[in-house]
Amino acid sequence: MNMKRIVIASSPHIHSEDTLHRVMYDVVIALIPAMIISTVFFGLRVLAVMGIAVISAVLFEAGFLKLAGHDRIRSTAFDGSAIIAGLLLAFNVPPTCPFWIVIIGSFIAIVVTKHTFGGLGYNLFNPALVGRIFLLISFPVQMTAWTKPTFWKADALSGATPLGVLKTEGLAAVQDMFSIQSNFIGTIPGCLGEISAAALLIGAGYLLVRKVISWHIPVFFLGTLAVFTGLFWLIDSGTYANPLFHIVSGGAILGAFFMATDMVTSPLTRNGQMIFGFGCGLLTGIIRLFGGYPEGVAFAILLMNATVPLIDRYTEVKKVGL
Amino acid sequence: MKLFTFPRGGVHPPDHKAPSAHQSIRLLPLPGQVAIAMNQHLGKPAKCLVKKGQDLTVGEKIGEADGFISASVHSSVAGKVSRVDPAMTAVGTWADTVFIDVDNEATAAGYRAFTNQTPADWRQMDSREMIGKIQVAGIVGMGGAAFPTNVKLSPPPDKTIDTILINGAECEPYLTADHQLMLERSADLLAGIGIMQRILGIENTWIGIEANKPDAIAVLEKLITDGNHPGIRVAPLKTRYPQGGEKQLITAVTGRVVPSGKLPFEVGCLVQNTGTAIAIYEAVCLDKPLIDRITTITGFVKQPGNFRIPIGVAFDHAIDSGAGGFIDAGRVRAVINGGPMMGKTVRTIDIGTMKGTSGILVLADTDYNTKPEGPCIRCGRCIDGCPMGLMPTSLALHAEFNKSAGLKDVMDCIECGTCSYVCPTHRQLVHWLRIGKTIFRNADRS
């Protein structure tokens, strides 16, 4: 009887349909609404920015794997994780960002942040966010060259982000220039992918339904941010913006649902994830209200990334029967 | 209907039970030879009692229990011993094996003699006599683990058992043998339960059945109301793997939690599989040793079904003569002794079935979807899925790097397979945890 290919293996012998690819491409799908909104508001150039970020990320990934003598280069480079890192990096730069800066960011994200730590699953910090922070510090002019949404019109007008206006000109100026509704829909200057809270929330809902992410990190992140900024707003609503403004402005939604929830760089257990989300929200609030930068989401998540091993150690699940 | 369930973790794989469900139990045509291994059970293998050339009758003892945790082995056929040699068994280890050339007519007559007699009345027997009969009959747990039953029925003197749990969950995908047993042999099942109640001197009994077997629940619920079955209740269980895990079943039905590293009698429970309860009835009332069992043959075979299989019939004979053979032998990727979650792949298919063979599952290339292991992406699904509250990914890493210090929880793993099943990067977590158990045991010993 021809049974040459019979397998001797350890149980279980069946597997759920879930694969790494499915998890990763679900994230890509969830980013599509924000990609569409960004293209509509800022024009076709953002497609080029995203394309260059993704292509360079995949090429850096494949190149590194080749140098490292990896044996499954094609499937690993296209497992979706490099695509997500590239996309999220693009989401975190201004729409006018020069292409060469995007490529540098891609290199920092994939090679320095991800692969020097061992590649997928082993990196301590969120690759896209390290890329963003590196670019922000290295190229402050290009990385803060904000423009107003043009809606396909050719002439891009420069303008400041709501959080930037809040930092430099105060609450009254923000209230004159932006409404909560415009922040929610995304008709504001800002990073390529962060402007539309609505589009991001649609994607976030998809990830929650598909169980790719759980509610713990986003709810504690945004909840803490709201409580923290809300306290100051209650004390002095003439100086401090209201909590809703803080949630729909800047990278809070993008960070809470798409970056802080990155599985590799967030805690393993639910309790740990709640602590992590709390820390992200608190640090974001502190940086926004009292720090030198108008926006603190990226710094907050990276700082909390560093605490993940410690959080993991103290939040192990309780075994049954103790 | 209130459904009982365990509180933590678990998963619900597609159950694939339809092909063999409600197929009435069929007899296998006898093979020319059977191979009966001495390690049919957990614990020490039995000592072989027979020699080449010896004539055997159906039910004759061929292996003597060796030590406290061991079980006797009996000939499942009448015939002549052709040889006694160490051989590979269906659980993947080598053991002394008795190869018997089958005498068809004498074998059929031997089985008829067991079934045609008037069953003895267990209500007239005392506890010691019944335990003795169970021990002599070599009864072991038939859900797959094959733990000697008489040991389970004899708790240490300082422990009292107040609840009997009959495990009819059959939570493994594909398998339907217990389901069919509950439908076809419900009276014998209740008699087996009565015997256990009498042995332990208690009445409180639950029969746990997953809700995907509503007909079995209905049949038993009807039968237990006739007044002759005091204390027996049916507990419909949520269809969720591993609902039939011993510790999960106890918590689901009674709310009690078996302490880490302890056995069910610590919380006053005794868990027995439905097939075991029927074997107990046959041993006590018919003096029939454990020489055959009901096994589901399913998967990539032409006629899936439930079969009464004499112990020691080869897998290939069972598949060919019972289930009509493979659909396409060239596409068979794995033949499994047991279910897909906890069963073991067999190395060759010409080896004998065993007392613990609850299923013979054939998986084709399209069913066998395990991929090469990837890195852990720390998604935490294994942690959410673990019914024992362990952190499989952390334990697996400790095993991978041979660090015994971080492995103290690994002994609580029941190897249900949920973590490996849900892992998106196909990490062989259960496998690493098994290796972790060895690392921990060795470190503990030195």
SSE layout and pairing:
The complex is a heterodimer of chains A (322) and B (446).
Chain A (H helix, E strand, L loop, with lengths): L19 H23 L2 H23 L5 H5 L3 H11 L7 H16 L12 H12 L1 H4 L18 H8 L1 H7 L2 H6 L11 H13 L6 H20 L7 H6 L3 H8 L10 H21 L6 H18 L8
Chain B lengths: L25 E2 L5 E5 L9 E2 L6 E2 L4 E4 L8 E2 L4 E10 L5 E9 L1 H13 L10 H10 L12 H4 L10 E6 L8 H8 L1 H15 L4 E6 L3 H10 L8 E6 L8 H9 L14 E5 H13 L5 E8 L5 E6 L4 H9 L8 E6 L6 E2 L13 E6 L16 H5 L6 H9 L17 H5 L6 H17 L1
Parallel strand pairs in B: 1-14, 9-10, 9-12, 10-11, 13-17
Antiparallel strand pairs in B: 2-8, 3-5, 4-7, 5-6, 7-8, 13-14, 15-16, 15-17
Helix pairs in contact in B: 2-5, 4-6, 5-8, 11-13
Task: Describe this entry's structure for a reader.
Chain A is 62% helix and 0% strand. Chain A is mostly helical and 322 residues long. Chain A folds into 2 domains: 20-143, no CATH class; 159-188 and 212-314, no CATH class. In chain A, helix 2 packs parallel to helix 5 (99-114) and helix 15 runs antiparallel to helix 16. The longest helix of chain A has 23 residues, at 20-42. Chain A is globular and about 75 Å long. Among the domains of chain B are: 125-286, 3-Layer(aba) Sandwich (Rossmann fold); 381-445, no CATH class. In chain B, helix 4 packs parallel to helix 6, helix 5 (186-200) packs across helix 8 (274-286) and helix 11 (392-400) packs across helix 13. Chains A and B meet through helix 1 of A and strand 15, strand 16, helix 10, helix 12 and helix 13 of B.
Compute the number of strand runs of chain A: 0
Our count of helices of chain A gives: 16
The main sheet of chain B comes to: 6 strands, mixed
Which oligomeric form is depicted?
heterodimer
Report the CATH architecture of the domain at 125-286 in chain B.
3-Layer(aba) Sandwich
Low-confidence stretches of chain B: none
Backbone CA Rg of chain B = 21 Å
Number of strands of chain B: 17
Order of helix and strand elements from N to C terminus of chain B? EEEEEEEEHHHEHHEHEHEHEEHEEEHHHH
Class inferred from helices and paired strands of chain B? alpha/beta
| Largest sheet composition of chain A | none
Biggest β-sheet: strands ordered side by side in the sheet of chain B: 1-14-13-17-15-16
Strand content of the residues of chain A, in percent?
Answer: under 5%
CATH topology of the domain at 125-286 in chain B: Rossmann fold
Q: What is the CA-CA span between the terminal residues of chain A? A: 51 Å
Q: Quick one: CATH superfamily of the domain at 125-286 in chain B?
A: NADH-ubiquinone oxidoreductase 51kDa subunit
Overall body shape of chain B: globular
Please give the domain count of chain A: 2
Helix coverage percent of chain A: 55-70%
Average pLDDT value of chain B?
94
